[in-house]
Queue: 2 jobs
Job 1
Amino acid sequence: MLAPLTRPDLPTKLTAAILRGIKGECPRCSKGRLFGKFLKPVSHCSACHQDWSLHQADDFPPYISIFLTGHLIAPVLIAIGMSKALSMGAMIAIAMTLAAVVMLALLQPAKGATIALQWWLGMHGFKPGGRNEAHAPPKGVPGSPWG
Ligand SMILES: [Zn+2]
């Protein structure tokens, strides 16, 4: 029995696609960039030409960012709150700044992961099962059952 054909640049697992999205790489090929601006994905991958304008991440990336920010900075906020040396104003300034910085730092990776998840699952405009192209040989290969 022959092993299934795979292209080495395409992810074979959901976690690989999501990690590529977190890093801001194209979830499909990892060669191109996923974002043209801070939170604006490119319309098409420069390497594999995957259409990324089909995503509908909407409010899910901010939800993920805020959720993670709360859990990550909670221990710091508790430690600051137990300090007797800081004034209330200083504690509020530290907490607000820390929360804003951590939330903004997580926002783009959360959006990349969301787009990768939608692509993997074939949600919204992405072709259902489109990621399975990774397991088919390229079209035009002689003897290929896919044409
Ligand atoms: Zn690509």
Job 2
Amino acid sequence: MTDVWSERAEAFRTSATHREGPDLDLVVEWCEPGEGVQALDVATGGGHVARRLREAGCEVVSVDPAPGMRPTVVAPAEHLPFADRSFDVVACRIAAHHFDDVRAALAEMARVSRERVVVQDNVFLGERVEEAEKLRDPTHVRCYSEDEWREVFAEAGLVVEAERRFERAVEVEPWLARVETPAQDAARVRELLADRITDGRVALRSIVLKGRKR
Ligand SMILES: C[S@@+](CC[C@H](N)C(=O)[O-])C[C@H]1O[C@@H](n2cnc3c(N)ncnc32)[C@H](O)[C@@H]1O
């Protein structure tokens, strides 16, 4: 898996939907950035959350299991190599659906945070969408419903202080090209998602949750 992500690194660094957007703005705002705030960006990918937090004055460490993403530290979310309460805030954007164990990952994020954990991820929209997502990208594990996300936060000892939904109209062809879905699988993905595609864009949804340690 790690090598696959390293090969994709440049595509995720330049991807328009990852680089900017109101969802990224909200993740950054809910991190409560500022001079001297210590932040961890988990599954940093193209480094967009880390970059924005640095621009806002934070001291940022980024972590990702794929060396090609050029994180500060190479590690999976399920095993964060940091002491308890090392950061004021831990952020994780559009990545948890790739984690083998989302509960272990959230427990780790809560453990290494002194106060806040901010997570954005795509929301579960049914088994057809899951099938399409896995076909598009075999590293997809699973998206979770809004209720499941609340449970995962609660189990990690985090009180959900705010949450917001984003309806995302994602351009289908760049979305397939970014992870190099083979043509035959891409055709099946378009078929599975046909009722969600309008004008070349697929309607997906994400949620941003802001948690505070109990
Ligand atoms: C879509 S990218 C992340 C996007 C990025 N956070 C952003 O805001 O642009 C998904 C990332 O998850 C990472 N990843 C996959 N499995 C992981 C795991 N178990 N723990 C942490 N990161 C993982 C991949 O290496 C990849 O960099």
